[in-house]
């Protein structure tokens, strides 16, 4: 009888742990990949004030510059925000509200998104992953 209870509890604990891992939300992240033949720069300019989403790279600046080389070890940059997906009501809206502009530059490419709707459309188009948890900006 004691052996049966032990197996029963072990099975219950394993099933519970399995359910917990299946129900967890993925991490939200932004991933930038440079697949061009030259160096590239992505600049995020934030609106003044406090926002839900803000890169904490430089607390004294509202500008974040991500410089990417075209070598495998220096061609990507990623930052994780937390738990959830960018499709959750308000998630992407909060990031868009915090951004004043996004500027993407490489040898053969130069584009700036400075209207809120343009920023939103651009980021929304870059949602990837099974749960739309990552904004992947691939420079080609």
State the end-to-end CA separation.
Answer: 65 Å
Using the alpha-carbon principal axes, give the shape: globular
- Whole-number mean pLDDT: 81
- Helix fraction bin: 25-40%
Radius of gyration from CA coordinates: 20 Å
Strand order of the largest sheet: 4-1-8-7
SSE run:
HEEEEHEEHEE
* Proportion in β-strands: 35-45%
Number of strands: 8
**Major beta sheet summary:** 4 strands, mixed
Low-confidence spans:
none
Which class of secondary structure composition applies to the elements? alpha+beta
Number of helices: 3
Key features?
single chain, about 140 residues, alpha+beta, four-stranded antiparallel beta sheet, globular
List the helices and strands and how they pair.
Layout lengths: L1 H21 L4 E8 L5 E7 L16 E6 L7 E8 L7 H8 E8 L2 E5 L2 H10 L1 E2 L5 E6 L1
Helix pairs in contact: 2-3
Report on this structure:
The chain has 140 residues and is an alpha+beta fold. 28% of the residues lie in helices and 36% in strands. It has helices spanning 2-22, 91-98, 116-125, and strands at residues 27-34, 40-46, 63-68, 76-83, 99-106, 109-113, 127-128, 134-139. The radius of gyration is 20 Å and the shape is globular. The N and C termini lie far apart (65 Å).
């Amino acid at each position: 009888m004691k052996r049966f209870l032990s197996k029963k509890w072990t099975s219950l604990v394993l099933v519970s742990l399995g359910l917990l891992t299946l129900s967890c939300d993925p991490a939200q992240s932004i991933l930038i990949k440079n697949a061009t033949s030259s160096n590239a720069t992505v600049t995020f300019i934030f609106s003044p004030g406090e926002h839900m989403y803000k890169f904490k790279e430089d607390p004294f600046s509202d500008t974040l510059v991500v410089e990417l080389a075209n070598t495998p070890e220096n061609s990507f940059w990623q930052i994780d925000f937390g738990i959830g997906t960018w499709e959750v009501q308000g998630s992407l809206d909060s990031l868009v509200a915090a951004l004043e502009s996004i500027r993407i530059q490489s040898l053969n490419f130069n584009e700036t998104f400075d209207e809120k709707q343009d920023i939103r459309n651009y980021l929304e188009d870059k949602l990837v992953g099974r749960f739309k948890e990552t904004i992947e900006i691939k420079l080609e």
